[in-house]
Amino acid sequence: MKRLLILWFLISIISSRAQELPQGFVYLSDVDYSIKSELRYLSNNNFIGKPIDGYLKNCVILTRETALALHKVQQKLLKNGMSLKIFDAYRPQQAVNHFVRWAKVLSDTLMKKKYYPNVPKSELFKRGYIASKSGHTRGSTVDLTIVNLKTGKALDMGSIYDFFGIVSHPFYKDISKKSKHNRMLLRNIMLTHNFKPYENEWWHFTLKNEPFPKKYFNFPVK
User: Fold this and answer.
1) 143: which strand partners?
2) Please, what's the b/e burial string for 133-166 (b: 16 or more CB within 10 A of its CB; e: otherwise)?
3) pLDDT tens for residues 102-118?
4) Tens digits of residue pLDDT in 116-145
């Protein structure tokens, strides 16, 4: 009886930690436990100001190919006292739907001052900040930055993550020389390891030859 209780307890722990992922997906921590993460859509610290549908746990899920590529990036950064930090990776379609619903409620501007002070909320669709489909939902796109392991702080990139505005464009000129250097450090190491950048966001990269280029998933992040 005691053995059965112990077995049940262990199974319950494993079940609470993970779900059975679709074929081709992995938990990043199973590939590289050293990569840091702070899933912003699990918390209130995002452009909406509340947790987003589909995010239930701070665990990074990606296609296996993307996780392996990030592992190679991380190994290079670790040699220089740095680490990747993931803000978002696989994103379920239900989260994207949440963004779309929020964007249509023009009176909800809780986080405007921090994330989109110069953009009318009514123009978020028109300017491409919100869309009904996201590459993240295919599992091979990541939003990330670089952390200095000695200080524990993220490198200064000249804007906060998810800021809606031209200051987030990778080659925006009106930022410090150090911020420009840090953006290029991130961009170049990702390019070297088979990722393609998004020209409107310094933090956004997609694996080249992603395994699910036309398929959008909706299982939760847990």
Assistant:
1) 88, 204
2) ebbbbbbbbbbbbbbeeeeeebbebbbebbbbbe
3) 999 999 999 999 999 99
4) 999 999 999 999 999 999 999 999 999 999
Question: For this structure, is 38 an active site residue?
Answer: no
Out of 20, 65, 201, 210, the active site residue is: 201
CA distances from 78 to 32, 75, 137, 149, 152 (A): 12, 5, 28, 8, 13
- The token pair at 70 is 């990030």
Q: What is the pLDDT, as a whole number, of residue 18?
A: 57
Low-confidence stretches of the chain (pLDDT beneath 70):
1-18
Q: Could you tell me which residues are beta bridge partners of residue 37?
A: 86
Residue that has been written with the tokens 């028109």 in this structure = 126
Residue 203, Cβ density class (10 Å: 0-12 exposed, 13-18 middle, ≥19 buried): buried
Give CA–CA dist 76/81, Å, rounded. Answer: 9
What is the secondary structure of 128-174 as a DSSP string?
TSS-S--GGGGT-EEEEEEEETTTTEE---SS-TT--SGGGSTT-SS
Q: Which whole-number Å values give the CA distances from 195 to 55, 74, 186, 209, 210, in the listed order?
A: 25, 14, 11, 9, 10
Q: What is the DSSP letter of 41?
A: G
**Per-residue model confidence (pLDDT) at position 6:** 41
